[in-house]
Amino acid sequence: MNQPFQPPSGGGEDHPLHHLRHMIHQWLDERPWQKLLETLDDYFAQTFVEAYIPIEVKETKREYQIIVRLPEVKREQISLQWQDDGLQLFIDHYETIESADSHGHVYERRQARRRVARWIPFPYPVAEHEVKASFHNGSLVIRLPQKRKYIDIE
Predict the structure, then answer these.
(1) Phi and psi of 5, rounded to 5°?
(2) In this structure, are residues 40 and 32 in contact, taking their beta carbons and an 8 Å threshold?
(3) DSSP state, residue 5
(4) What count of other Cβ atoms lies within 10 Å of the Cβ of residue 97?
(5) What is the rounded CA–CA span in Å between residue 144 and residue 128?
(6) Which region among 29-33, 77-81, 136-140, 148-152 has the lowest average model confidence (pLDDT)?
(7) pLDDT above 80 for 138
(8) Mean pLDDT over each residue of the chain, to the nearest integer
(9) If residue 91 lies in a helix (H) or strand (E), which one and from where to where?
């Protein structure tokens, strides 16, 4: 009884749990389970990646411009929601991924949806009808009338 505990050796085929260990490894190595685990990995990798939408601000005596560069986004993916003190910008991305065999038969179809949002605060109170937005060549431009009063310095 004075001898320390020795775990069973990791063993070869004569180990009592070898058959069970082999069955578990075989079960996890089968294609459907591998694909399920890969899909879960992809989901968590994409879900928790933070997206950042940079904005650029230009101000003149006539207007205040907020420029959002979105080179790979289509107009249909963009939506703006009015708030009293700013805009909520949403970019929705929908994707359908299909895998087909050499005969063109689809054996897998996945759909993914991702929504990225950015709050754009206004520098001063603006009425909803005064805000204008346009989208051309990958740039969203939001225009506000200039309400700040500038004093000329002599």
Answers:
(1) -65, 135
(2) no
(3) P
(4) 10
(5) 10
(6) 29-33
(7) yes
(8) 81
(9) strand 86-100
* Helix, strand, or coil (residue 67): strand
The tokens describing 15, both together, are 């180990």
pLDDT in tens, 32-52: 666 666 776 666 665 555 567
Q: Tell me whether residue 87 is exposed, middle or buried, using C-beta atoms within 10 angstroms of its C-beta: 0 to 12, 13 to 18, 19 or more.
A: buried
Provide the pLDDT for residue 4.
63
Distance CA 14, CA 11 (A): 7
CA nearest neighbour of 46 among 118, 116, 138, 117: 116
Residue keyed to tokens 């990646």: 49
Distance from C-alpha of 138 to C-alpha of 28, rounded to nearest angstrom? 45
